[in-house]
Write a structure and sequence with these properties.
The chain has 272 residues and is an alpha/beta fold. 44% of the residues lie in helices and 11% in strands. Strands 3-2-1-4-5 form a five-stranded mixed sheet.
Length: 272
């Protein structure tokens, strides 16, 4: 939960936060009002930041919370804004800087959506305007820059949780597929072992020969990259709370069946 972090001002990082926890100051409400906790200089700034954060939380002011929280701590937003999260992944037709987007998969507010080049890709910017919290895997390095290059004036959320880097703070390393496997989040047999390079090959098979089956597998693969982010991030959060959020409630962990039907329906849209 957000009210269990004190990293709201530059002078407080993980070490000073842990010092507060050792003193029994676990939440904002535990910070004494009329005595010095950290120092006479720091305490007033911390109390001011807490008041600002508390007001922002009560009014669902995500922008202000983003200003206060360092990027490494934005995973804490998840319990409060999970209903706003858009889990997103893209595929491209190669690895160069000029590679074209072939598919965008999104899980947003319980709905699965696919935007595919040559079909409905240009509908994505309008859809993106309703997203408030973006969740990706390595998207800060790849997906976001590619999207912004493809769609001029695209309005993506400033609130962004990159699961790759959030996972590192929880001691979870590796690519998305290896992390899924370690967490027991298996994909269907026909998708196991597929990589982004295979998605490129599938797209080219569709583009060059009209192989509809290849297109459908690519679309399904892309959607799994998006929807699997939700259970992965929930598990990352629950791992982090064991270390950094003493006493906070765990997040319920999504199972594949929660969105499997909608995913199949999205793939079927491109079958004919």
């Amino acid at each position: 939960m957000i009210d269990r972090t004190f990293q709201l001002i530059r002078t407080i990082g993980p070490a000073r936060e842990k010092d507060l926890w050792r003193r029994g100051v676990f939440t904002w409400a535990d910070l004494p009002e009329n005595q010095v906790t950290l120092s006479e200089k720091i305490d007033p700034f911390l109390r001011e930041a807490i008041a600002k954060a508390r007001a922002a939380l009560e009014s669902n002011d995500l922008a202000t919370l983003l200003e206060l929280l360092p990027a490494r701590e934005r995973w804490r937003l998840l319990p409060h804004f999970a209903h706003e999260a858009a889990y997103l992944d893209i595929e491209t037709d190669g690895t160069s800087d000029t590679a074209e987007i072939t598919a965008i998969g999104v899980l947003h507010k319980g709905q699965v959506r696919s935007f595919v080049n040559g079909f409905n890709l240009d509908d994505f910017p309008a859809f993106a305007e309703n997203m408030k919290l973006l969740v990706t895997f390595n998207g800060s390095c790849f997906d976001v820059p590619v999207l912004e290059r493809r769609f001029r004036g695209l309005k993506l959320p400033t609130a962004h949780i990159d699961v790759r880097f959030a996972g590192r703070h929880a001691g979870i390393e590796g690519g998305l597929k290896s992390i899924e496997k370690a967490m027991g989040l298996e994909r269907p047999l026909h998708l196991q072992g597929l990589t982004g390079f295979e998605a490129v090959r599938l797209w080219r098979a569709w583009r060059d020969t009209g192989d509809r089956a290849a297109l459908l597998v690519m679309v399904e693969y892309n959607l799994y990259d998006a929807v699997q982010l939700k259970p992965v991030l929930e598990r990352v959060y629950n791992r982090m709370r064991e270390v950094a959020l003493s006493g906070a409630e765990p997040l319920p962990e999504t199972e594949r069946g929660d969105w499997l039907y909608d995913l199949s329906q999205q793939v079927a849209r491109f079958a004919a």
